Amino acid sequence: KAVVSTQSTGNPDKSYLLVKSEFENRAKTLFEDTGINITSEGARHLGAALGSDTFVQSYVQDQVNKLIDMVSNLADIASNHPHLAFSNFTSSLKFKWCYLQRTIP
Length: 105
Prior knowledge:
The chain is α+β, with helices and mostly antiparallel strands and 105 residues long. The chain has helices at 24-30, 53-78, 82-103, and strands at 3-5, 16-18, 37-39, 42-45, 48-51. Strands 1-2-3 form a three-stranded mixed β-sheet, covered by helices on one side.
């Protein structure tokens, strides 16, 4: 089985074919002239990571590090502008965190 992720435009440069590692070379041969990206590791689709456990863990770690930086910046802002920091947290940052939690298995 293979999973194909294609954007709504059908642009092959934005399309990924996720295959098991033992089928990667065969898939590259079959799809070499299509421009489709072929990988056995993983790819992002609508902000979520699909693929191997290693790829998903790496993606989640990157996203968590970004969120940590954002919270740290909000904490710095909150010392002088508490309402601004709270407003930013409730209208933006918490939704990013919730989306990450919903889209990662």
